[in-house]
Amino acid sequence: MGTPDFAVPSLKALHASDHRVVLVVTQPDRPRGRGRQVFPPPLKTTALSLGYDVIQPDSLRSEALAADLTGLRPDIIVVIAFGHILPDEILSLPRLGAINVHASLLPKYRGPAPIPWAIINGERETGVTTILMDAGLDTGAILLTSKTEISSEDTAASLHDRLALLSARLLIETLAALEANDIQPEAQDHSQATYAPLLTKRDGQIDWGKPAFVLERFVRGMSPWPGAYTFHGVKRLKIFKTKPLALETPAPPGTVIKGFADELRVATGQGTLSILEIQGASGNRLLIKDFLRGYKIPPGTRLG
């Protein structure tokens, strides 16, 4: 069970293993983009290319789905970025339980958006965790974990891709340990739990009152979705890459301050943020020096 690109490497790893995938369950095809054209979930596309049966139930509580899964008599259900909480009647079906692969070091960052929030909050490491699922949201007993450092260059996109591959490896390791009866589930310390809520487009707006080093992490964590942005008047400017400067200024946060001709410096609540890559309301992602050739933002301008 899975839906987005994050689940694809794990399905491919299962396909290459000795385990037998008898069914792939994913969310329904949905409209996307400005044209609202209907597209299948990435996991569906991959599953069909590998020759698997795919179902896309509108509800996990339908009698038809319960009958399909019961008839298969699965040993294990694997859940990766599916987007639904499994009801008890599904959790109780597999002989060895339902296994979830989650993109954080649980119990930290439970919820739908652990990858961007780990970057935004300045974590130095993150990873993936396999758990034996229960009725809660990412609350099940921990099976195995695998860690990776978060570099100063990581965006949510680069970390997503690395953790997706890490998830595939950890899933195969977890299944091997279960098969060998060589794993002991460990209850999570719920007092240490944190939550990573889903991001919306509105969450990408930059709050210039925060320190420059915090905003630099924010920009990386918001890339690619929903994207960090600010406004110049009524025009939205999307910010892709920044650099914090230890340069204090008496200007109010959000004020463009004087710098070199080919750079854009903005006062923050602490220090100054140099914007390195940007995109206007209509146009392409550009280096700031190229953007400023055709779009003037003089010192003293207030962004927000």
The N- and C-terminal alpha carbons lie at a distance of 41 Å
User: Would you identify the CATH H-level superfamily of the largest domain?
Assistant: Formyl transferase, N-terminal domain
Contiguous low-pLDDT stretches (5 residues minimum) are none
Quickly count the domains: 2
| Helical content class | 25-40%
The portion of residues forming beta strands comes to 15-25%
CATH class of the largest domain: Alpha Beta
Assign the CATH architecture of the largest domain: 3-Layer(aba) Sandwich
- State the total count of DSSP E strands: 14
CATH topology name of the largest domain, in short, is Rossmann fold
Number of helices: 8
Q: Taking Cα atoms only, what radius of gyration do you get, to the nearest Å?
A: 22 Å
* Largest sheet descriptor: 6 strands, antiparallel
Q: Which class of secondary structure composition applies to the elements?
A: alpha+beta
Describe this entry's structure for a reader.
The chain is an alpha+beta fold. The relative contact order is 0.10. The mean pLDDT is 96. The chain folds into 2 domains: 5-192, 3-Layer(aba) Sandwich (Rossmann fold), CATH 3.40.50; 201-294, Roll (Methionyl-tRNA Fmet Formyltransferase, Chain A, domain 2). Helix 1 packs parallel to helix 6 and helix 5 (114-120) runs antiparallel to helix 7 (212-221). The strands form 4 sheets. Strands 9, 10, 11, 12, 13 and 14 form a 6-stranded antiparallel beta sheet that branches. It has a 4-stranded mixed beta sheet with strand order 5-6-7-8. Strands 1-4 form a two-stranded parallel sheet. It is elongated, with a radius of gyration of 22 Å. The protein has 8 helices and 14 strands.
